[in-house]
Design brief:
2 copies of one chain form a homodimer.
Chain A: E1 20-27, H1 30-40, H2 44-47, H3 49-53, H4 64-78, E2 85-96, E3 105-117, E4 124-134, E5 140-151
Chain lengths: 159, 159
């Protein structure tokens, strides 16, 4: 049941605990922020400069969901597109630590913090990925932990 | 320091533990799925029908981040735009329970599961919101728990 789409990619056995993946930077323009917010998070402090100035954020800031989406995209480019991923299981402990303002540049790193073979499905492993997302001043803006299913190359080898 | 943008909205004191907010339905067309995935989650099983058929998902399925974004949008329309929200703090325990396939309709409900006054900032409260997102067959596709900051009307009343 080899899946030709992912046969040549890194499999679970190729991943290493503590491995760190650098994420490419992304600059959030005003248009990116308001376009995303209009579709998914249309609150005044993501859409309107004056309302944003009067809010806790202190100025126009991206939807936290957009910060997450751009971080996910960077991880796809740097890592998920190169491994035999079967999909995400979920997230835990997402924290928005500081607002991402217009023209801020976010980047960061993702660390493999856990590698676990599935007991019930020996052809899969679960990789846990810790995001550390920062702005151009190296201030942390978001952390989160993603659990992703990855195919094993040798499912017959005991977990 | 009254913020005119949110002065007339529901404040922390108006929210009730156990209150349930119904989310409007959203149908994920093929174009919505591939457009979102091309921008934020460009993995084969979100973009290409044949690759998706060979994947664990069994067919073209939305990015889990898109399912979350649409659920957030529905919560903004039904609730967050009506309260004096100061922004999200983060979320925990996001779980993708089943894939959302082309033309599936998602909807669901959000329940206020915790209301807590901030000890350090008495003019804010923290509302915890539990999402229960289901498809048109009433199968649960996603759960998550969001923590949101809300202004108090009477900060001088002890927490």
């Amino acid at each position: 049941m080899t899946n030709p789409v992912i046969a040549n990619r890194l499999h679970f056995e190729d991943l290493r605990l503590g491995e760190t993946i650098a994420l490419a930077p992304s600059t959030l323009t005003r248009e990116m922020i308001t376009t995303f917010a209009a579709e998914f998070d249309p609150l005044p402090f993501h859409l309107d400069e004056e309302a944003a100035r009067q809010s806790l954020l202190g100025g126009l800031a991206s939807s936290g969901w957009q910060t997450g989406a751009l971080s996910l995209r960077a991880l796809v480019d740097a890592f998920l597109s190169k491994i035999a991923s079967a999909g995400g299981l979920g997230f835990s402990d997402l924290k928005w630590k500081a607002p991402v303002m217009v023209n801020d540049t976010i980047s960061g790193a993702v660390t493999i913090s856990e590698l676990r073979r599935s007991q019930s499905h020996p052809h899969w492993g679960i990789v846990t990925l810790d995001f550390d997302i920062r702005n151009q001043k190296n201030k942390q803006v978001m952390t989160m932990r993603l659990a992703n299913l990855v195919e094993c190359r040798n499912p017959e080898v005991a977990a």
